[in-house]
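ok trying this again, last paste got cut off
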Amino acid sequence: MNIFFIIMLAVQTTLGAYLGWRFRWAFGVMLPPRLMAWYVFWPMVALIVMSFPLVHFFSRRFGVELPSWLFFATALLYGALATGFATVVIADVLGLIVRRLPFLQTACAYVRQHPHHLGFLILGIIALQMVFGFYRAHTPRETHFSPTVHKPLRNGATQLRIVQLSDLHISRYSSVTLMQEMVARVNRLQPDIIVFTGDVIDNSAQPYFDQEMPRILGGLKSRYGVYAIMSNHDYYGESPKLNIDAYTRSNMRVLRDEILYLEEPGITLIGRDDWILETRQLPPSVLPDAPGNRASLAALTANADPATPWILLDHQPRQIDEAIAQKIDLQFSGHTHNGQFFPINLIVKHLYKKPWGLLTEGTYSLIVTCGFGTWGPPLRFPGYAEIIVADVLFQPSDL
């Protein structure tokens, strides 16, 4: 955790310094000299850039219940800063190219004389991205996959509909209406199984209860039940046990490093605890509620019937080779958000073998969702919020 916060602080400092420098260049001549004085301007930049983490830190450290609109506003501001940083960097790179083109020197001279015109153009581009990103984050779509499992179902059926929900990140500024619409939409899909693959609660379970999420999510209906696993954010909050209680009250069966055989269809569900347990980088406050290291996949499958389809729920799509080696048939994961917004989506593509979508290798299939909710900024660009609908086909192996 300390390394994470050090990295975040370095990123925040870089972001603030760069944006502050470019803002002064573009709008410095238009604003009052007193505002542009370094001892006024740079503290203001630092306060704006650090507002999002500061609000969360102040609330958690001192136990102060701040208004939800403040969390929402600072999260939105954080999204604007991240989007603005990427936009300004791209504009500066294009500027370097343009300055080398002789036929555009007149335009370059105009920008040097009127830098605020370019500044307003960039602010407009950032605003459009924010509007579009907010819309995509609050307009979920259904993403359909049809993976094949090369084993038969016990009841003779050839297909199961599994709906995957992940990364809701329910917090003080989550939309209750959006969650209610999600439940109604999932129920219309008439799923056989519903799986939550982590990060249902963002950090604190209190907003989950305050917004009556146990009642709302408890309204989900499926033929063979609703199942959930633990994730990294379950260990960032006050207590993993409190989160488990919240999920249990929502009629979810929490699988915490355990296997569950569903007798009627004849499938084996394997729910892994989160990978963060292997790093041991946990807040001291949750250590009493954390088990030791998470169980190995080999240990979990040792007593599972290999003739049944093995369906694995694992929040982070890591250790894929281990899943293949242990002959997992189908895995559901989340966590990545597919980067959520530019330019983080480019970074995520290099961190995971499959940051989003369906991966098939031999008899193994992996589905990674970009999730339903958002972490931090309530934005998704160029991604979107989604509900995964997996119509899984079952058939005897040809091997």
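PB: full thing came through this time. DSSP finds 15 helices and 13 strands in the chain.
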